[in-house]
């Protein structure tokens, strides 16, 4: 054994304590850490020859790289839809690394059973029936990809071909219909060989709404003359967290032949709020579902879950044909369900957080985030120079400048807020109007954070006016 490695092994408890102390110090100040780091990245250094040991690596990281890390795990990082890591989830994630189990199969371990239990808990959390099988994947993009891969195999089944054997070309032109699809859906279609251009937009309800017009969807399905299709419904759109009428869309299956995939990356968590659970009414009727977990469940990156009613087709797509792995059984190993043969035990952090805080604890996070988003919406409406572009439906606030809302002027506001270190917001475009969006999903966020974000926005708009605009 290399002497440095042997020395680290002998001092392992001390090294872990050192890493623990370092992490605890960083987390204790995450609420006041600049949300976006102003530091310049260090110049690359050559690969070490002998190495400096684990403590030396920690010291070098603290000196060279730590100053440039953002406060994205903190309470005012409102860009994208970004959670943090609850204390229990962090503990579970640390143990995931310590045990270093390959979660693709049991392999003489109970890790697969732990993942199945966790998937069952999530199924219950979102109000899904036992017909839905599930597995952990890396994020919403992979969850959408897996769901649409199963949909692709279903299309082949309807047309009398095996796509997993013959390839996507055997399908001919594929019709994928959606109102406000997330960009990851188009990416998935590209990866799956279906093609980005096969994503056919369906008219929306109008006004500020991002939900699909179900009557227009019916017309689009009617125009296919009975050819099977894929419908991607949205439970929580990116800009305004609008919800398609899932129950009405599912009812169209009585007349039309289509696979219903629901992108519920963070919108599925509306099920935890009694006042808003109706938004996901009909989710159980989906053929496949995407839910992200490193968003509103607040477990560390990377973690998501995918569900489908047709796990038999999922196995047909993803099973690994190798004598040393064995054939899929009635309860297939996870390596036969997702693209990965090797995968970390992502389920453990989720198991820890669900065990620690239960339904009630995670429901409190959801309710608080929704309340805080509403508060920021009220605050923005009261800031001269800003206006809401849509009502705050759930946990995202979409707003723009009251005067000349150009992409350049919005970018200047976002940059000023980021440079202040107070908050981070991401740009978007809603029905042709450039805008900014603030997404609440971090378990640490409080009313005081909302006030700081509102004040930072007010200062940024004042600065834009004082400078004469862009």
TrEMBL record:
Q: What cofactor does this chain's UniProt record say it requires?
A: pyridoxal 5'-phosphate
* Lyase recorded as keyword: yes
Task: Cite the residue spans of the region called Disordered.
Answer: 33-52
**Keyword Amino-acid biosynthesis carried by entry:** no
Keyword annotations for this protein?
Decarboxylase, Lyase, Pyridoxal phosphate
Family in the record: Belongs to the group II decarboxylase family.
Kindly provide the name given to this protein in its UniProt entry. Answer: Pyridoxal phosphate-dependent decarboxylase family protein
To which species is this protein native?
Streptomyces litmocidini
């Amino acid at each position: 054994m290399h002497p440095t490695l042997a020395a680290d092994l002998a001092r392992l408890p001390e090294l872990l304590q050192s890493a623990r102390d370092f992490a605890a110090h960083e987390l204790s100040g995450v609420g006041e850490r600049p949300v976006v780091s102003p530091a310049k990245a260090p110049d690359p250094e050559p690969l070490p020859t002998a190495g400096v040991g684990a403590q030396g690596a920690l010291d070098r990281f603290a000196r060279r790289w730590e100053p440039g890390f953002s406060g994205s795990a903190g309470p005012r990082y409102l860009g994208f839809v970004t959670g943090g890591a609850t204390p229990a989830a962090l503990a579970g994630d640390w143990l995931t690394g310590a045990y270093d189990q390959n979660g693709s199969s049991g392999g003489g371990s109970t890790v697969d059973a732990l993942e199945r239990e966790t998937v069952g808990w999530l199924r219950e959390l979102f109000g899904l029936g036992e017909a839905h099988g599930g597995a952990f994947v890396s994020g919403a993009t992979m969850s959408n990809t897996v769901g649409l891969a199963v949909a692709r195999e279903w299309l082949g089944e309807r047309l009398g071909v095996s796509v997993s054997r013959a390839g996507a070309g055997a399908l001919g032109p594929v019709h994928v219909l959606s109102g406000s699809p997330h960009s990851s859906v188009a990416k998935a279609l590209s990866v799956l060989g279906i093609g980005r251009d096969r994503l056919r937009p369906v008219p929306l309800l109008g006004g500020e709404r991002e939900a699909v017009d179900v009557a227009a969807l019916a017309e689009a399905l009617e125009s296919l003359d009975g050819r099977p299709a894929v419908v991607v419904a949205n439970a929580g759109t990116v800009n305004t967290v609008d919800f398609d009428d899932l129950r009405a869309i599912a009812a169209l299956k009585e007349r039309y032949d289509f696979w219903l995939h629901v992108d519920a990356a963070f919108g599925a968590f509306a099920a935890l709020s009694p006042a808003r659970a109706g938004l996901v009414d009909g989710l159980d009727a989906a053929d496949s579902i995407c839910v992200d977990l490193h968003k509103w469940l607040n477990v560390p990156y990377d973690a998501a879950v995918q569900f489908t009613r047709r796990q038999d087709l999922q196995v047909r797509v993803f099973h690994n044909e190798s004598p040393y792995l064995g054939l899929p059984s009635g309860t297939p190993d996870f390596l036969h369900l997702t693209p990965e043969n090797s995968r970390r035990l992502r389920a453990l952090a989720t198991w820890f957080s669900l065990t620690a805080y239960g339904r009630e604890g995670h429901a409190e996070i959801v309710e608080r985030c929704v309340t805080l988003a509403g508060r920021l919406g009220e605050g923005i409406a009261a800031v001269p120079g800003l206006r809401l572009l849509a009502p705050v439906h759930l946990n995202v606030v979409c707003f723009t400048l009251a005067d000349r809302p150009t992409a350049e002027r919005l970018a200047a506001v976002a940059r000023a807020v980021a440079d202040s270190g107070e908050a981070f917001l991401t740009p978007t475009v809603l029905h042709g109007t450039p805008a900014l969006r603030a997404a609440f999903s971090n378990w640490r966020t409080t009313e005081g954070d909302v006030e700081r974000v509102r004040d930072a926005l007010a200062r940024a708009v004042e600065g834009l006016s004082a400078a004469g605009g862009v």
